[in-house]
Design goal:
The structure is a single chain. The protein has 567 residues and is an alpha/beta fold. It contains 11 helices and 29 strands. It has helices at residues 6-17, 167-179, 194-201, 217-220, 228-237, 275-280, 285-306, 331-348, 390-399, 420-423, 443-450, and strands at 28-31, 36-38, 41-43, 54-56, 64-71, 75-84, 90-96, 99-106, 113-122, 125-132, 139-147, 184-185, 187-189, 207-211, 241-245, 311-314, 354-358, 374-379, 405-411, 430-432, 455-456, 482-486, 489-493, 502-508, 516-522, 526-530, 538-546, 549-550, 557-559. The strands form 7 sheets. An 8-stranded parallel β-sheet has the order 13-14-15-16-17-18-19-20. A 5-stranded antiparallel β-sheet has the order 2-5-10-7-8. Strand 19 (405-411), helix 10 (420-423) and strand 20 form a beta-alpha-beta unit. The chain is globular.
Amino acid sequence: MKRTSVLLFIISLLLAIVPMSASAKSSRIFEAESGTLTGTAAAKDTPGYSGTGYVTSFDNDGDSLAVDVSVPSAGLYQITIRYHSPYGHKQAYLFVNGTAAGSVDFEQTTGFTEMAVTKALLNKGTNTIRLDKGWGMYEIDYFAIEPAAAPAVHQVSKALVNPGASSAVKSLMSYLVDSYGSKILSGQQDYSNVAWIQSNLGKKPAMVGFDLMDYSPSRVELGAATTEIEKAIDWDRQGGIVSFVWHWNAPKDLINQPGKEWWRGFYTDSTTFDIQYALDHPDSEDYALLLRDIDAIAIQLKRLQDANVPVLFRPLHEAEGGWFWWGAKGAEPCKELYRILYDRLTNYHHLNNLIWVWNSISPDWYPGDDVVDIVSYDSYPLAGDYSPQMGKYDQLVSLGRDRKLVAMTENGAIPDPDLLPVYHADWSWFTTWGAFDGNANSLDHLKKVYNHDYVVTLDELPNIKTYDLGVKTAPAAPTGLKAVAGNGQVTLKWSETSGAESYTVKRAAKSAGPYTTIAWNLRTPGFTDKGLENGKHYYYVVTAENRLGASPDSAPVKVKPTKVRGR
C-alpha cells in the first residue's frame, strides 16, 4: 500500500497557516561580501556591484560562500542571486540550512545580472544559504529573498505539434496532461535495470528509456549491433511507456584514437565533424550524411509505429552543454538540425508515433513551440540531493510559457516525492540513469519513492493507448478468440476490444466450465499457455476490463496440444 506522508501534511498545513500573497511580497537583499567566505575572497574589480563589493575566487574544491538570511515567517521563499560569469557557462551547488537544494547554472554575462535560482522552505528567523564552488570562475554580488508567489494554474494543452499523430500517441499525451501536477511517473533508463528494480523495490517503473545510439550508421559500419527496438516493443506489450534518446554518433570524421574511440563519436572531443559546415553546404557529402543517418533512424522508428508503440522522442539532448557535436557550434545550427529532423521524420517519413521532447533550458536554444511537445531537463545534482530541483523546473515552465509539459528526462538523485507537491514542482516524470550504487540514491530512498502515493509505477498505469477514448462503460466481451496448438502449449489470439485496458484468460477442462483464471492484467490481445498435457482438450475464454468493470466471457474456444513429430 502506498503510504500517505505525514511530512507532506505538516508542511502543507504550515504553508496554509502562513499564506504568501503577491501583495505581501518584499525582496530582502543580503550582500555576499558580508557572508562567511571559505577559500573565497571579497573584491571590487568588476564594476556594477552593490554594497561594498562582491565575492570571487571560487577556484578550489571546498571553496564556498555562506550567507545568513532572516525571514519574518516560515514558508516557501524565492531565492535570487546577482552574479557575473565572464568565462562562459558555469555551475555551482546550493545548500539551504545544510541541505542540498540543487545545482545553479550561471550563463555567461558581460556584467552583474540577477537570476531567480530556486525556491526553498525557510524557517522563521535566521537561515543559512551556502554556495559551493562547483565549476568555479564566477562572481557573486548578493542574494535576494522574497516570499514565493502562488503558482498559476497550468495552461498545458493536449494538442500535439504533429496534427497527424496516431490515436495511441494522443491517448498517451492525454494521460500525461491529466496526471500533470497530481502525480509523477517513475522512469528508468536501460531496460536491463528493470529486473533490479522489481527484485529490490517490488515494483516496475511506469516508463523505460531506450537509446537509438547503436543504430547510428557510423557505429553500424564498425560492428555495433543492438536490439533496443525489440526490447521497447516488449516493454510496450507489458503496458509500459517507451521513451527514446539518440546518442547520435557523428556521421563521419571519427577521431578513433585512445581516449577518443569510435564508440565515443557522439562527443564533441571525439569527432571533427562540423555541423555548421554541413548545414551551410546542403549540396555537400556532410549534409547528405546527416539525412542518411536520419533516414536510418526512421527505419527503426517505423518498426515501432508498425507495432503501435507511442514514443517519447528526445533527440539532440543536452545540446547547450556543448559536449555533444550537435551543440558544439552553438544554438543556431543545433536548432536548424532539430527542425530538419522533425520535418524529415514527420513529413517525409510520415512517422506519427512520436511525442517530441526538447532537452535544454536556455531560451536561446529553444527551436520553437511548433516542433516541441514537452520541455525537459537532465538533472545530476550532488549524490543524495533529493530536493525538487525547483529552479530548473521554474525555468522550463517559463520556457514553455506553462503551455508545455515539463519532464526530468534523466536524473541521478530522485527528488523526494514528499516535497514535490509542497514546492509545486510538477515534474511529469523522472528517468533515473543507473544510480543503484547506494550513492546517488540510497536503497531506503528508492523504496520510499517507488511505494509513495505521489509516484506512478507500472501496475498503476491505465491502458495508455485507450485512455483518451472517452470510455463510459465496461467493455464488451472480446471477439475473434482463436487458439493454435503447440507442443505442450497453446497460443491464444483475439481481436482488440474497444475500451479495454486489460484482459484476463481463463481455462477449463469442459466447455461449460468451471473456468479458472490463468492470466490477468494482460495489456495486449494475446497469451501463450505453457506446461500443458499433449492430447488433452482444453477450453478457453477471455474477458476484457477497464476502470469501470469487466466484460462477460468471450465465446469459448477448444484446443488440444500436440507433440510435434520427431521431437
